[in-house]
Amino acid sequence: MSSRIRFGGDYNPEQWPEEIWDEDVEIMRAAGVTTATVGVFSWSLLEPAPGEYDFGWLDRVLDRLHAGGIGVVLATATASPPAWLARRHPESLPVTIDGVRLAFGSRQQFSPSSSAYREHALRLVRRMAQRYGSHPALEMWHIGNEYGAHVPRSYDEESAAAFRAWLVARYGTIEELNRAWGTAFWSQHYASFDEVGVPSRTPTFPNPTMVLDFDRFSSDAMLALHRAEADILRELTPDVPITTNFMGPFKDADYWQWAEHVDIVSDDLYPDPADPRHHVLAAAARDLMRSLGGGKPWLLMEQAPSAVNWRPRNAPKPAGYYRALSLQALTRGADGILHFQWRQSKAGAEKFHSAMLPHGGTGTRVHREVRALGAELAELGDLAGAPVPAQVGILFDWDSWRAVEQDAVPAERDYLATVLDWYAGFLRRGVTVDFVRAGADTSGYRLVVAPLFHVADDAAVAELASVPARGDVLVVGAFSAVLDENLHVRLGGYLGGAEGPLQAALGVTVDEFAPLAAADTETAIGGTVTGVARDWQELVVVHDAAVLGSFGDGFAAGGAAITRRADESGGAGWYVATEPGEALRDDLVARWLVDAGIEPGFTRPEAFAETVVRAGRRLVVNHDDVTRELALTGGTVTVEARQAVILPAAGDDTVS
Length: 656
Description:
Layout: E1 6-11, H1 21-31, E2 35-38, H2 43-46, H3 56-67, E3 71-75, H4 83-88, H5 115-132, E4 138-142, H6 157-171, H7 174-181, H8 208-236, E5 242-243, E6 245-246, H9 255-258, E7 266-268, H10 278-292, E8 298-302, H11 321-331, E9 334-339, H12 365-378, E10 392-395, H13 398-404, H14 415-427, E11 433-436, E12 447-450, H15 458-469, E13 473-477, H16 501-506, E14 508-515, E15 522-526, E16 531-534, E17 536-542, E18 546-551, E19 560-566, E20 572-576, E21 579-580, H17 582-596, E22 609-614, E23 617-622, E24 628-632, E25 635-639, E26 643-648
Parallel strand pairs: 1-2, 1-9, 2-3, 3-4, 4-5, 6-7, 7-8, 8-9, 10-11, 10-12, 12-13, 13-20
Antiparallel strand pairs: 14-17, 15-16, 15-18, 16-21, 18-19, 19-20, 22-23, 23-26, 24-25
């Protein structure tokens, strides 16, 4: 990234008469726009018939933007194929799990495994790179758009063949596939790969490992499309960075794998201002993007300056709150604040989606806020490229997410909601968190937290177990390390399996799971740690740990709920065999921070506020509907409702 903060958004001039384009550039300049993302949904205009190209209008757009001093993130335009592809190659259209072939007339209407789509898309990408690779406006390539947002997987015949090829590459032999999938159960044995289909509708529960593998394959199939485009761009324009827009924590694409194939991590995020917990998801998504890139700056590719159009009811952002959420992204590592879109559409499905230049023009509240933010970001260029330090790492694992939400498990669990609950405990204390890939080196964190880490291979189990032994603090949540990477049960007390390193590090084993009547059913916790938990109990056998909290009722009454094993190195291993309620979680987070020697940003939990430090600047956001006096470790600050202030990192009691 450059030494400036990018500011701008998707620009779709093809939706407007050409005489408006000069006006757009003029208004962009006045608003402080530095960057325009162009061409995301332009395939049908760039290639109106197979092999017939019309680049003249795009030439004129890029020339205008460059003349106005505005850089371009140029999309490859492959996000939505044109009508002629659907008509000539109906087999390229995706098929649902129920066998319904989806039609042209929306967007993203292609099967990720379609060879026809791939052939035509890559031909367009090559022509785009040849024509615009040396254009002076070009600063970055944007491949596709929101992969999997509408079609994360397809059940067509071409996908089935691609899935079989993927399985051959993964397992090598049909015998190994049978072992990994446990096909001795229910007579599911396969004699050859040719017998394997896709996990379509079945009379009852499908094979769990087959379903997980199809989830993995589907993410990989989309990634293969991205990589094929990237290969062409890197061949022809090796010095131009590449990105594609992620969508926060998105179940259908394993972004740990995807992040390895972009030069800059980008994100689209639209938190709902009417949701009282939206700020938790927003903060977590920012931290996830930074973590996916290994701590490098990332790009907020899309956000809405006010309301979106696709919820049942679309709340606008209150005055000033657009700025607060933009600064939240900036101080959590973004080097660019972009939007969907520049000019609000006059027609189409997104005409009521807010934009930087609304239907009402430059005199609107939203556009005034856009101009003010553009001016402010121009003064914050010293943040560009700066890291965001974190001493806490929380595991985020796509295999666990997918597996724990399958059928035929002890109880329905919401993986993302659980992780966000644990994350919120640190957010409420103003503690910055990185997310960590399963099995990755955690030695840079003084506190490592693994909530609902259900699927764990041997390397991940060993890495977690090493945390207390090196003198740091490990916290493991319920229902963790129960299955291996093939979804086979780790026998002998779970937590990684019999007499394994994780059981030793925690000093406990688990005999039995006891989900409560509903996710919001409460259970009392008593002992040194007291409070209310919910959703889940386990029968925990304590071997070498102190019991700090016990279940006061329910199936596991009298049994250990919260334990801590002190390691001789000075580290500690905590196990939490339930889902703590908010007050109990606040208490536990405070204990874990003391255990790890980490100073919080807030002196007390703040339910609707956050604080984070980047490059010597401390952001404080009040997400509440009322003005709040917030108690920072270095002093207090008063922040108005839905507003943000930036302070020097030292001397927090003085607003800069």
